[in-house]
């Protein structure tokens, strides 16, 4: 039950372009307690792509257009540290507070450490996190995602869990059924990332074409021991069709 005794809370959305953010936004748009004012995406400033997902900024801009919300990028250095991330996000959150934005929408499902980190950072600017997917079953979320008419492409997979054949595919039941048992169906542990090209609140379908598939590794910071597993990722370069 929602509390409609107050004006809607002005809300910013942490927007990756993927399924979790998209489904979280769906639920928040249905909730009269909140008014979503802006989408925010962290991007690699050198390559103009979404951090970790590898999606071109042009595709995120197109999503914002068909959603009908303003979009802002937080651009990070090529090898951004947590200090870089925190400093740039703090500047954004300070601006939000000045604009009377009071809540921040997140698509997190069950990672307790990540939620705690977000809430601690938000609290510094008197912001509150909104987590509409929190503690829901991953398969149930996907069934809802499909039933509502969402469609997405898998744009990045961790080579620790998945091989090249998984990247560039539609995120459908066949994809999920092919996942190894240790992989979360929503990829909540970073096993894969997606790009939503159809949603019930999009004003238009976004045609996409799967381009080149690229394997990339990320250097281990000098003060850390390299992990025992493969830290590489397969990316599918999506293009507007």
Question: Roughly what fraction of the amino acids lie in strands?
Answer: 25-35%
Q: Which structural class do the helices and strands define?
A: alpha/beta
Radius of gyration computed on alpha carbons: 18 Å
Biggest sheet architecture: 6 strands, mixed
Mean pLDDT: 92
Number of strands: 10
**End-to-end span in angstroms?**
41 Å
Q: Regions with pLDDT < 50 over 5+ consecutive residues?
A: none
Number of helices: 6
What is the global morphology? globular
Instruction: Name the helix and strand elements from N-terminus to C-terminus, one letter apiece.
Output: EHEEHEHEHEHEHEEE
Which percent bin holds the helix content?
A: 25-40%
Describe this structure in words.
The chain is of the alpha/beta class and 241 residues long. 27% of the residues lie in helices and 26% in strands. The chain contains six helices and ten strands. It has helices spanning 19-29, 57-67, 82-98, 112-123, 138-147, 173-177; strands at residues 9-14, 34-44, 49-50, 71-76, 103-105, 128-130, 151-158, 192-198, 208-216, 233-240. The strands form two sheets. Strands 1, 2, 3, 4, 5 and 6 form a six-stranded mixed beta sheet that branches. It has a four-stranded antiparallel beta sheet with strand order 8-7-10-9, covered by helices on one side. Helix 1 links the parallel strand 1 (9-14) and strand 2 (34-44). The longest helix is centred in the middle third of the chain and has 17 residues, at 82-98. The radius of gyration is 18 Å and the shape is globular. The N and C termini lie far apart (41 Å). 33% of the residues are buried. The model has no long low-confidence stretch (mean pLDDT 92).
């Amino acid at each position: 039950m929602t509390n409609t005794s107050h004006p809607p809370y002005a809300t910013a959305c942490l927007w990756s372009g993927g399924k979790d953010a998209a489904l979280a936004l769906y639920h928040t748009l249905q909730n009269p307690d909140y008014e979503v004012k802006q989408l925010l995406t962290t991007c690699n400033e050198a390559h103009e792509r979404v951090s970790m997902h590898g999606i071109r900024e042009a595709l995120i801009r197109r999503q914002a257009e068909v959603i009908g919300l303003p979009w802002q990028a937080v651009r990070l250095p090529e090898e951004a540290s947590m200090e870089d991330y925190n400093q740039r996000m703090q500047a954004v959150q300070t601006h939000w507070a000045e604009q009377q934005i009071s809540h921040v929408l997140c698509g997190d499902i069950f990672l307790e450490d990540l939620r705690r980190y977000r809430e601690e950072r938000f609290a510094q600017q008197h912001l509150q996190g909104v987590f509409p997917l929190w503690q829901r079953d991953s398969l149930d979320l996907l069934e809802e995602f499909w039933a509502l008419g969402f469609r997405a492409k898998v744009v990045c997979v961790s080579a620790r869990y998945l091989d090249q054949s998984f990247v560039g595919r539609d995120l459908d039941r066949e994809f999920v059924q092919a996942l190894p048992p240790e992989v979360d169906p929503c990829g909540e542990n970073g096993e894969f990332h997606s790009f939503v090209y159809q949603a019930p609140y999009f004003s238009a379908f976004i045609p996409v074409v799967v381009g080149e598939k690229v394997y990339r590794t990320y250097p281990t910071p000098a003060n850390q021991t390299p992990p025992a597993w493969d830290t590489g990722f397969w990316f599918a370069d999506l293009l507007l069709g």
